[in-house]
UniProtKB/TrEMBL annotation:
Signal peptide stretch: 1-31
Superkingdom in the source lineage: Bacteria
Protein name (Swiss-Prot/TrEMBL): S8 family serine peptidase
Domain Peptidase S8/S53: 173-464
Pfam families: LGFP, Peptidase_S8
Keyword Hydrolase: yes
Compositionally biased region (Low complexity): 227-236
Keyword terms, alphabetized: Hydrolase, Protease, Serine protease, Signal
Record organism: Arthrobacter sedimenti
Active site: D182 (charge relay system), H241 (charge relay system), S417 (charge relay system)
Organism taxonomic ancestry: Bacteria, Bacillati, Actinomycetota, Actinomycetes, Micrococcales
Coiled-coil annotated spans: none
Length: 745
């Protein structure tokens, strides 16, 4: 991408160019300006590509980037300004901070070229200054059943037009926003439905034309000038340049009124940056930043960032550093920036922003399909689009007012300012058809699908005339596996198989160097890799108990753990415990404990079957979960588990647990019931089994709340006839076939 300027035929004169060249040497940065300079006529006569009446005077504002050591210190910055005032006898003051955290300073009066140069040199010489450039003015360069559609040759003529009608059955741009950074916008019934909220980015009330600074109202109050204003000896009527550009893009179609936009389904986000004397570079650049969703100091964030930006402004200059930074930021945020190549019939590389990086520069063609007589040319031009010429201009929405807004109307203009919204419209249609496209892809595709000019071109016309019918393509539907693979950006490596179908439940897979993607209509497409994939394979893949994966691997668990969910359960892995399956009722109880974050931690075995009466268990870092058909699923942990193990687990006298541990007993006690008894634990007495006749006797005394208290031993034999005893805190229970008695302590 290159950067270029779009305009009616506005140019920066020799005095400004000399200043810009000097600025490049002194501050490593420059800026350009654009202002509306045509007198539009109502249909059918086109207006000539106007040029500014007199070159704009050097700026009274400068963009200063301080070194980090001084950027946050008003005192340090003040020293720089004081020195500059001493050197030049001209005071300066800070008026705002740009989106790039540079300071915009304004002189106490308008400066001539020599004074501007001295100010630049003095500020640049400051030890705390990283760069400085003139904040110079930029100027616009404007050179279905809708009744005037037949006069919109750039849309309706497939030989020399941009061939958008053929794509309107695929998309009209619905869902896309195009920011038009220009003079603002006027009320027009053929635009109203497609205009959304924007912003007035002009900071200086003296040049804004609406009596105030930045605000949420991007209405165009008129950019007329009287003789002597703006350094010009002649007067000029208001151009309504932004309204004309907006109509080229998004005039409402099929409303039996006026004209149709090239992308009539998009919404226009008007960003006003050009006033009665043009627009400062800092305002235009902040407009780019805001429109694309970047942060601008003192301005609310844009709730609706535009993915397409139309910049029909510019002039002869090197690419200003401030503008380049704004463009780079916009592109990094995903916005494609379309700019005009300029109207001086010279190399576009001489014009900014056409000579900036990361833009798509648009040259203009005429109704014969040749390069328009005024259009800039050369390697900096990316593609061409209809911009009109003296034989036929570009018809669009306009206003009849000569100074302030009057009645809505339509009119012709010509210039690369008109060609730029033609191309921006196609860019928005491309994005609507394929939202995955990024700015570099949009540029590449516009160039790759451009066609040779039907007419002639000398000097270089980029890749040719844009062709919406070839550029705007709704991507072929991807299979779920292909879409999943595309989203991974090559993370799985090269494909080692094609897509293979015929699996259970109409599923399919594709394998890659680092794993596979599995798909079924019920589960979607998910990645299967590594140790988790290995264990899934051991279960029988999708034909096993787990079925298809329903998530990718999910990381971020405690201690570096990872899991993947399946139709029938999950597989969990951690560095300390390896990879294990979690399914069914045992998984449900593990979930109730808090998964790996709970008392049990990670599983350390898979489920183990083959226990008595169909039982199953799974061990965890902190214990186990046991299930049987008769008793359900229960946790086994700690000292109680140790005691149960000593009895022989489910094969012992107690059998399977029938409850989890129950807390809340006297003195912090806990118990767990089993098929044939219980295990009781307290801090003072430890864990002991309680079952049979001895347990019944203990129960009759009130368990741990009775006189006996907690057991302090397991049962032990006291004779050869089956007699047993069990010790308690308050005594001993003695049992024999002939009866029992308690010996109290």
């Amino acid at each position: 991408m290159r950067t270029k300027t779009g305009m009616t035929k506005a140019r920066i004169g020799n005095r400004a160019l000399g200043l810009l060249m000097a600025t490049t040497l002194v501050a490593s940065a420059t800026a350009a300006t654009a202002s509306a300079a045509n007198n539009p006529a109502a249909p059918p006569g086109p207006s000539a590509p106007g040029s500014s009446a007199g070159a704009p005077l050097p700026t009274d504002q400068f963009i200063v980037k301080f070194k980090p050591s001084a950027a946050g210190s008003a005192a340090e910055r003040g020293k720089t300004y004081a020195k500059a005032a001493g050197d030049t006898s001209i005071d300066v003051r800070e008026v705002k901070t740009t989106a790039s955290d540079a300071k915009v300073v304004k002189a106490s009066r308008r400066l001539n070229a020599a004074e501007s140069q001295r100010m630049l040199e003095s500020i640049a010489a400051g030890g705390n200054v990283a760069s400085v450039e003139p904040d110079i003015l930029m100027y616009p360069s404007a050179t279905p059943n809708d009744p005037y559609y037949s006069q919109e040759w750039a849309l309706s003529d497939p030989n020399v037009g941009i061939r958008v009608p053929s794509v309107w059955d695929r998309t009209t741009g619905t869902g896309q926003i195009v920011a038009v950074i220009d003079t603002g916008i006027t009320a027009h019934s053929d635009l109203k439905a497609n205009v959304m909220a924007g912003y007035d980015m002009i900071a200086d009330p003296a040049t804004s034309g609406d009596g105030d600074g930045r605000d949420p109202d991007p209405s165009d109050p008129g950019d007329f000038r009287t003789a002597g204003a703006c350094g010009s000896g002649s007067s000029a009527n208001s151009s309504w340049h932004g309204t004309h550009v907006a109509g080229i893009i998004a005039a409402v179609a099929n409303n039996a009124e006026g004209v149709s936009g090239a992308a009539p389904g998009v919404k226009i986000e008007p960003v006003r940056a050009l006033g009665s004397c043009g627009g400062y570079l800092s305002d235009v650049s902040d407009g780019i930043t805001w429109a694309s969703g970047g942060t601008v100091t003192g301005v609310p964030d844009n709730p609706n960032p535009a993915k397409t930006i139309n910049l029909s402004v510019g002039g002869t200059a090197a690419c200003p550093a401030t503008m380049q930074a704004a463009i780079d930021g916009a592109v990094n945020r995903g916005s494609t920036v379309f700019v005009a190549a300029g109207n001086e019939n010279q190399a576009a590389s001489n014009d900014a922003p056409a000579n900036c990086n990361n833009v798509i520069a648009i040259g203009a063609t005429n109704k014969s399909g040749s390069k328009a007589s005024y259009s800039n040319f050369g390697p900096a031009v990316d593609v061409m689009a209809p911009g009109g010429d003296t034989d036929a201009g570009i018809l669009s929405t306009l206003n009849a007012g000569t100074t302030s807004p009057g009645a809505e109307t339509y009119g012709y203009m010509m210039g690369t300012s008109m060609a730029t919204p033609m191309a921006a419209s196609v860019g928005a249609l491309m994005k609507a058809a394929d939202p995955s496209l990024v700015p570099s892809q949009i540029e590449a595709k516009l160039k790759a699908t451009a066609r040779p000019l039907p007419g002639t071109c000398s000097g270089g016309c980029g890749a040719g005339l844009i062709d919406a019918s070839a550029a705007v393509a709704v991507p072929a539907p991807q299979t779920p596996i292909a879409a999943k693979a595309a989203s991974l950006n090559g993370a799985l490596g090269a494909a080692t198989t094609g897509e293979v179908y015929g699996l259970k439940d109409n599923g399919g897979y594709q394998c890659f160097e680092q794993g596979c993607i599995l798909y079924s209509p019920a589960s979607g497409a998910h990645v299967s890799v590594g140790a988790i994939r290995g264990l899934w394979a051991a279960t029988g893949f999708e034909n096993g108990r787990l079925g298809y994966p329903v998530t990718d691997e999910v990381s971020g668990l405690r201690d570096g753990g990872v899991y993947q969910n399946y139709q029938g359960g999950a597989i969990i892995w951690s560095p300390a415990t390896g990879v294990h399956i979690s399914v069914g009722a045992i998984r449900g109880l593990w979930a109730a404990t808090g998964f790996e974050n709970g008392r049990l931690g990670y599983p350390v075995t898979n489920e183990v079957s083959g226990l008595r009466d169909g039982g199953v268990y799974q061990n965890y870092q902190g214990g186990a979960i046991i299930w049987s058909p008769a008793t359900g699923v229960h946790i086994s942990v700690g000292a109680i588990r140790g005691e149960w193990a000593a009895t022989g687990f489910e094969n012992g006298v107690l059998g399977y647990p029938v409850t989890d541990e129950v807390t809340g007993l006297r003195d912090g006690g806990v118990y767990q019931n089993y098929q044939r008894g219980a295990i009781i634990w307290s801090p003072a007495t430890g864990a002991h089994a309680s079952f049979g006749a001895t347990r019944s006797i203990w129960a009759s005394t009130g368990f741990e709340s009775g006189r006996l208290g907690y057991p302090t031993s397991d049962e032990y034999p006291t004779g050869n006839d089956g007699s047993v005893a069990q010790n308690y805190q308050g005594g001993v229970i003695h049992w024999s076939p002939g009866g029992y008695y308690i010996s109290w302590l």
